[in-house]
Amino acid sequence: MSEHQEQNVELCLLVERNGSLELRTMKCPQRSVRHQRGLIEKSARVIGSSIREISEE
Q1: What's the structural domain count of the chain?
Q2: Is the pTM of this model over 0.70?
Q3: Which of 1, 47, 48, 55 has its CA 20 to 30 A from that of 39?
Q4: Does a structural domain hold residue 21?
């Protein structure tokens, strides 16, 4: 049983840009969550975030 595949997660960020709030949702591998969030933080202020594991049936 090789269950050692890349775990994908759903990353949901609440960001503020130019005084308005945006909700950004993206799917990415778990290991790149910090990288993805860092990219967004360059152009917007991240107010909140949640990470949800995607169960692949």
Answers
A1: 1
A2: yes
A3: 55
A4: yes
